Amino acid sequence: MIHKMNKSSIDEVVNVHLKSFSGFFLTFLGKRFLTLFYKGVIREPTGIGLVYLENLGNNKVIGFVVGMMNPSGFYSRLLRRDWFRFGIASIPAVLKKPKSVFRLLRALTRPSTTPKDPTVAELSSIAVLPEYQSKGIGKNLVNAFIQEVKKREGKFIYLTTDACNNEPVNYFYQKIGFKLKRSFETPEKRKMNEYWYEIC
Question: What is the pTM of this model?
Fold first, then answer.
């Protein structure tokens, strides 16, 4: 059921993202931007992308997880390599909301807050189609991500998620074994929780 993400699955991954993250910033940036981002993840040697297929005879993607080893510099490398296409893809969002350009630049540069350690992985996004949730798919994807990080000699995984009005997601990570390391507030006043998982 779980396979490595490849170029042929990107369109479906973007579809799952759009259906799972309504109202989120990356969704606001649009389908074209998301396509570039997920292609960038699987193109990068440190990138990790896994998809959950509906069944063995059907290639329909119903869930995915993405992240990367040693995330420091990943987003800036992504921006440098495809800056023109990312710029073109973000134009509709910036025209709708001009101030979003500052948030976009912060997200893509991710300077001092990103760990500079080759044994640390970031779990940057996980989603399951709404109609397939509560079936253990998310847990299986996270466990597969953990195993992939372990294969790459990783020792820790971290992630951030909303602290407010997000109890099921926070409980999900805590139940799997992620430990809350800190809570913080973004420049947009969005309260976040940062979780870490130690690989034994």
Answer: 0.86
- DSSP per-residue codes, the chain: -EEE--GGGHHHHHHHHHHH-TT-HHHHH-HHHHHHHHHHHHHSTTEEEEEEEEETTEEEEEEEEEEEES-TTHHHHHHHHHHHHHHHHHHHHHHH-TTHHHHHHHHHH--TTS---TTEEEEEEEEE-GGGTTSSHHHHHHHHHHHHHHHTT--EEEEEEESSS-HHHHHHHHHHT-EEEEEEE-TT--EEEEEEEE--
| pLDDT the model gives residue 74 | 81
What CATH number is given for 2-198 in this structure? 3.40.630.30
What angle do helix axes 137-151 and 167-176 make, rounded to 10 degrees?
Answer: 50
* Tokens (6 digits) for 189: 């006043």
pLDDT of residue 100: 62
Query: What residue spans define the domains of the chain?
Result: 2-198
Instruction: Give mean pLDDT in consecutive 10-residue pieces for the chain, a chain of 200 residues.
Output: 94 95 78 91 94 83 96 78 73 69 61 74 96 95 98 96 94 97 90 95
- Residue reference for tokens 């969704």: 27
| Cα angle 98, 103, 107; round to 5 | 145
Give me the phi and psi of 109, to 5 degrees please: -95, -35
At 121, list the tokens: 């992985």
Question: Please, which residues bridge with residue 184 across strands?
Answer: 192
pLDDT the model gives residue 165: 92
